[in-house]
């Protein structure tokens, strides 16, 4: 028998022993179990929810990710201004800010404006910003954020969710269509810059 390995009784039904190969397999399985346990623990640290205070662990990460999002669309870096803006939104409850992340590391953000809908005497939730860090894309974070927004909107009695995206953003359009959003062809979107 190889040095350092022992025959081990594995059953009280009799003196059966494991071979060196089986012992190595068991050790490999135990190592794998440790890895899986580590992954499970890391997943347990993932957080997905709505920011309700600036003291929450993910607030600073959300600020950084919103600033990254703005830069993605050509804006200059402005972490101080983003922090002030996000603080005002969270404290005033003028918008709902959803974040996915781990610890203080925000990985996905979504902002939502809740507006009145006079015809239905309910509300419409407008998804304004949705962004996932490029290093964590294609892992379901955007879908999870949108699912949480939809759940909260439904629970609040909203009439519908609405969003808009650039026609060239094919991945986003595919995502939105895949979870039930439909393109409106009979609506004209107009803006007036102030």
Structure notes:
- The chain is an alpha+beta fold.
- It folds into 2 domains: 1-44; 47-178, Gcn5-related N-acetyltransferase (GNAT) (Aminopeptidase).
- The chain contains 5 helices and 5 strands, in the order αβααβββαβα.
- It has helices at 20-44, 59-72, 79-92, 141-155, 170-178; strands spanning 46-51, 96-102, 105-117, 122-132, 160-163.
- The termini are far apart.
Write the layout of secondary structure elements.
Layout: H1 20-44, E1 46-51, H2 59-72, H3 79-92, E2 96-102, E3 105-117, E4 122-132, H4 141-155, E5 160-163, H5 170-178
Parallel strand pairs: 4-5
Antiparallel strand pairs: 1-2, 2-3, 3-4
Summarize the structure.
With 194 residues, the chain is α+β, with helices and mostly antiparallel strands. Helices cover 40% and strands 21% of the residues.
